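in:
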């Protein structure tokens, strides 16, 4: 137990110093439990995966605010709980309040409403096209675009994360988005 605590302190210190391996180790340690928490809270794998990706970005942004006097795990899961709350607030399309037990207030199991069949197929096809288009970009550019648009990071934050000049990040994202537009338009025509 003492070794685990020491390792956790080292990982936190590394993450606070901006070392990628510290973040990776923290996510490897807590990722499966966070995913289980998000899955239980949201009721579906897609939302759980989205929230897991988002907490990675939030961890990068807020690790410097962590005070070593408190326990890390409750701090991290408080962020996770706030994210679930915010997600529910923004996703008003789901009726009822969902408890972490997967039950609605009336005690019935939560079953998210299914979108119309055509909408689901179209959304899935669009997501697959976008994923394929993102894979065609170089890895750094793809990650920059995802951090900007899905992680809602500023260009300045992305530049700091990649240790690149701001102008370079702006140019790569701009070129990458242009490539994505062309690829998506080409796939729509075929």
């Amino acid at each position: 137990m003492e070794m685990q605590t020491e390792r956790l302190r080292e990982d936190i210190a590394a993450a606070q110093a901006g070392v990628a391996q510290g973040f990776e180790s923290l996510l490897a340690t807590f990722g499966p439990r966070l995913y289980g928490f998000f899955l239980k809270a949201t009721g579906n794998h897609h939302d759980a995966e989205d929230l897991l990706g988002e907490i990675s970005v939030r961890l990068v942004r807020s690790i410097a605010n962590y005070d070593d006097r408190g326990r890390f795990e409750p701090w991290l899961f408080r962020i996770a709980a706030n994210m679930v709350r915010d997600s529910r607030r923004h996703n008003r399309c789901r009726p009822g309040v969902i408890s972490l037990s997967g039950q609605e207030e009336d005690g019935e199991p939560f079953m998210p409403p299914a979108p119309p069949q055509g909408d689901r197929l179209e959304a899935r096809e669009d997501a697959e096209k976008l994923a394929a288009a993102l894979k065609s970009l170089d890895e750094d550019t793809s990650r920059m675009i995802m951090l900007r648009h899905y992680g809602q990071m500023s260009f300045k934050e992305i530049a700091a994360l990649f240790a690149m000049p701001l102008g370079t990040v702006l140019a790569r994202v701009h070129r990458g988005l242009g490539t994505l537009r062309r690829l998506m338009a080409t796939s729509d025509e075929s």
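note: The chain is about 75% helix and 0% strand.
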